[in-house]
Amino acid sequence: MLDEAAVAVATGAASNVVAYLLQGRAEALHARLSAVFQRGTAEQRSDAFQALEDDSIALAQHTATEAEATARWTGFLTAYLAAHPDARTDLEALASAAPPATRTVNIGSQHNHGSGTFVGGDNHGGITVTNGAD
């Protein structure tokens, strides 16, 4: 039986797994999970990487919710930690290593026709900047 702190570590690690997946960073997570599951059996490693792939696809296609994936990984990591208590340090590292924020860049084009002022629109000609003095 795991203590509350160990369950919290597994839950934090599971949350970060899902955060990586939501950002489309399954490949970066693969290396982290390799370190976590190094103490496990070949079957445990295989199950982890299969779950990683399955949840990555399910989250991308919106066939699973973030809460469902987090619950699945919490159960998975809690069971692993119960079987391999010496993996706690690796899980703590995963729990504290949130994925770096990614930026969204929208690229678009706008062209305005007609007269009037267009916010963020085309500007042809010069711009005069004054310092507010007459």
The best one-word shape is: elongated
Q: How much helix, percentage-wise, in residues?
A: 55-70%
Beta-strand percent range? under 5%
Termini, distance in Å?
A: 78 Å
Largest sheet: none
Q: Which regions have little confidence, pLDDT < 50, spanning 5+ residues?
A: none
Structural class: mainly alpha
What's the tally of helices?
5
Total number of beta strands: 0
Summarize the structure.
The chain is mostly helical and 134 residues long. It is 57% helix and 0% strand.
What this model shows, in words?
- The chain is mainly α and 134 residues long.
- It has 5 helices and no strands.
- It has helices at residues 4-22, 26-36, 42-60, 66-83, 88-96.
- Helix 1 crosses helix 3, helix 1 (4-22) crosses helix 5 (88-96) and helix 3 packs antiparallel against helix 4 (66-83).
- The longest helix is centred in the first third of the chain and has 19 residues, at 4-22.
Task: Name the features.
elongated; 5 helices; mainly alpha; 134 residues
